[in-house]
Specification:
232 residues; alpha+beta; 4-stranded antiparallel β-sheet; elongated; disordered N terminus
Length: 232
């Protein structure tokens, strides 16, 4: 009986109490480790979610620069481009930019093309990307484009400039226009334009091509007209 009292009685309760205190001390000592553990889990969870969201955004951004059949291409003008971007790419200010964009989207040469998109950087509701042009008169040029997220979807917002500018290709594109059937551009005027494009800075060429109203390009033409008065 004495042994039983020792085992199940007062002495046993003291033993259990001492063990309980030791367990409590061990648990308290481990709290910092548990906090670090749960913070790490939370960080990994957020990183996983963030990575998934970023991957989804990159896929959506790449799709913006992939021209599809006519009906979808026309829709892209209003859904996947902002007013500023439309004005830049059409050279038309105001509401007419949308109509010009839709008209150009119906042209055969503007259908079923896919620009190469790389170096996509997403920062919250804005993003930048490098877009290598394909299938138009800027083929081979690499543009840096700003995008914004509006109404739950990404839209091309602004052409920031050239990441890579191939002047030779750009001049050849102008030559194709100036020498196309029906063109009345003189060789002297064309040579003036080529020379100025050759020596212009990347920022100036960006303004010539994507200045919205094309005012800078018209001023370039006017300078060459002045220097080449024989142009019809």
């Amino acid at each position: 009986m004495t042994k039983c009292r020792t085992l199940f009685g007062v002495e046993d309760r003291k033993l259990v109490g001492a063990r309980g205190k030791r367990k409590l001390v061990i648990f308290v000592n481990r709290i910092p480790q548990l906090v670090v553990f749960f913070i790490t889990l939370l960080f990994l969870f957020c990183a996983c979610c963030g990575g998934t969201a970023a991957a989804s955004s990159k896929t959506e951004i790449k799709a913006i620069f992939r021209t599809t059949p006519t009906e979808n291409a026309v829709t892209q003008c209003s859904i996947e481009e902002t007013q500023r971007f439309r004005e830049q790419t059409t050279g038309t200010p105001g509401k007419r930019a949308l109509k010009v964009c839709e008209r150009e989207a119906r042209l055969p040469e503007n259908q079923a093309t896919s620009d190469i998109v790389s170096h996509i950087k997403v920062r919250g509701w804005t993003a930048t990307a490098h877009v290598r042009e394909f299938g138009d008169n800027l083929e081979g040029q690499i543009l840096k484009v700003m995008l914004i997220r509006v109404g739950g979807r990404w839209k091309a917002d602004e052409i920031l400039g050239f990441f890579h500018l191939d002047r030779d290709k750009l001049i050849r594109a102008f030559k194709e226009v100036f020498t196309s059937p029906g063109s009345h551009v003189s060789a002297k005027f064309a040579a003036c334009i080529y020379a100025k494009l050759r020596h212009a800075s990347g920022e100036e060429i960006t303004e010539y091509l994507f200045g919205g109203s094309r005012e800078a390009l018209h001023e370039l033409y006017d300078r060459c007209l002045t220097e080449s008065p024989s142009v019809p």
